[in-house]
Structure formats: structure tokens, C-alpha cells
Specification:
single chain, alpha/beta, Collagenase (Catalytic Domain), 4-stranded mixed sheet, globular, Zinc-dependent peptidase, MtfA_fam, MtfA_N, MetalloPept_cat_dom_sf, aminopeptidase activity
Length: 259
């Protein structure tokens, strides 16, 4: 079986090289990737090329998707799986890109068993086995220094859904302790919810208090963009994310270590 896999891998077409100009532009827009040492940037570039070969980009609402846009999104999508591998994104194949926010109809049932229908305007959405939907306007406007990265956020939902409905508890590695993960995230989530409910300002995006799945997604995007916020405010969560993603952004991004 191992020999058969090796043959199949050799027969697969190699990913197309990423043009240097597009790669440099994507790095400029992704501080964490730009701050990586050369060997890691090379590894990330190869993974990004594999991602571009494996996933399709589908335009919506009249947007024209350029190669530079594809590379920018693919690079950000590969940041969380740099030391995990592309197999963590198996089970879905398409990215739908809108020029701006998009409207969806949502149906949910409350605790009393009453079904509700509502219309929401979203900038991103990830369906467990379906496409990842993104707003290009949001991607262009976000500020990584403030912990914003829509692509990483939605990719975190994809990772969270690998073992069932997203609940902030993705499939952990064998050397990780589920009890430690649960304890760290539960305490941090409860603390953030208390602060938001009390109307106190938080350095972390208060949207993280919406539910455990959003807490994990927001913490993940902040982990890779403004890691000092997680490192200093939620050290136990930072340690669990470091183990899960097998990366240590606080030690990579120079500005993260400033007082």
C-alpha cells in the first residue's frame, strides 16, 4: 500500500510555481508569514502551491478573481496548517469569493423548541463539508495587528469541524491532553463572556464570546496575527494552540514581543 501511494504521488501533476511578484505581495499582506525564517517561508510557499492545485476558486456577485488574489488567500489558508499538512483540509474543495458581504438565510431552534428564521449579512462562512465563503472587501480592509484574519478564522472552523459539529474542540494530537484543552478554553471563554456581559472593554474581539466555536476561531486568527494578546491575556489557551498548530507565533513576530 505504501508503494502504491508513492507511485500515485509521483504520477500527480506538480503544482504550478507561484509567480515571484504574487508571492511577494501575499507576504507583504501576511506579517506572520513574512516574519518566518527562509526555510519556513519556502515550506509555506510549497504548501501554498499545493493548496492552489487542490482547491478551486469560484467567483460570486460579479467579482473577477485574479491570480494575485488566489495566492493571497491560499497563503493565509496555509498558515494554520504549516506543520499539520494539507490533509487537514480534506473533505472540501471550493472557495467562493464575493466582492463584499453576502446575505444568507439561517434557521435555528431555540431552547424552547421554537424554530426561527432570519437573514444575516456575513463576511465569511464555513460549512463542514461544503465550500468556504469569503468577502474580498473584508480581507483587503482587515488589520492583522489588531488580530484580524478572516481566512484563518474560517479555516479554524474547518479544522474544528473535522471531528463533528464545530464546538471549539478540534481533533487533538495524541500527545495532547483533552482535559487540559477543555480546562484552558472553558476558563478563558467564561472569563471573556463575563467581561462582555458586564460591558467591559476587551482587547480580544468580543465576537469570540458568541459561542465556543467562535471563541476558538477568533483565538486562532489572533494567535497568528497578534499573538501577544493571547499570550498575555490567555496564557493557558496560547499554550494549547501552540501544541495544536505546532507553531509559536509569539516567538516569530517581532512586534509581538514588545511591551
Amino acid at each position: 500500500m505504501a508503494g502504491l501511494r508513492s507511485i500515485v504521488q509521483r504520477l500527480r501533476p506538480k503544482p504550478r510555481p507561484i509567480p515571484d511578484a504574487h508571492w511577494r505581495a501575499a507576504l507583504r499582506a501576511t506579517p506572520y508569514a513574512r516574519a518566518q525564517p527562509l526555510q519556513e517561508r519556502q515550506r509555506l510557499r510549497a504548501l501554498t502551491a499545493q493548496f492552489l492545485r487542490a482547491k478551486t476558486f469560484e467567483p460570486a456577485a460579479g467579482i473577477a478573481i485574479t491570480e494575485a488574489m488566489r495566492v493571497c488567500i491560499a497563503l493565509r489558508a496555509c498558515v494554520p496548517i504549516l506543520h499539520l499538512g494539507l490533509d487537514y483540509y480534506s473533505g472540501w474543495s471550493a472557495i467562493v469569493l464575493y466582492p463584499g458581504d453576502f446575505r444568507v438565510r439561517d434557521t435555528y431552534m431555540d431552547e424552547a423548541g421554537v424554530e426561527h428564521h432570519e437573514i444575516q449579512d456575513l463576511c465569511g462562512q464555513s460549512m463542514a463539508r461544503g465550500p468556504m465563503v469569503l468577502s474580498w472587501e473584508t480581507i483587503r480592509a482587515e488589520n492583522p495587528a489588531r488580530g484580524q484574519d478572516l481566512v484563518v478564522h474560517e479555516c479554524a472552523h474547518k479544522l474544528d469541524a473535522l471531528n463533528g459539529a464545530p464546538d471549539g474542540f478540534p481533533p487533538l494530537h495524541p500527545d495532547m491532553q483533552p482535559r487540559e484543552w477543555g480546562r484552558a478554553f472553558r476558563a478563558a471563554y467564561d472569563r471573556l463572556r463575563s467581561e462582555v456581559d458586564a460591558g467591559r472593554g476587551t482587547r480580544l474581539d468580543p465576537y469570540a464570546a458568541a459561542d465556543p466555536a467562535e471563541f476558538f476561531a477568533v483565538l486562532s486568527e489572533t494567535f497568528f496575527t497578534a499573538p501577544q494578546l493571547v499570550y498575555r491575556d490567555f496564557p493557558a489557551v496560547y499554550d494549547q494552540l501552540r501544541l495544536f498548530y505546532r507553531q509559536d507565533p509569539y516567538g516569530v513576530i517581532p512586534t509581538a514581543r514588545r511591551p
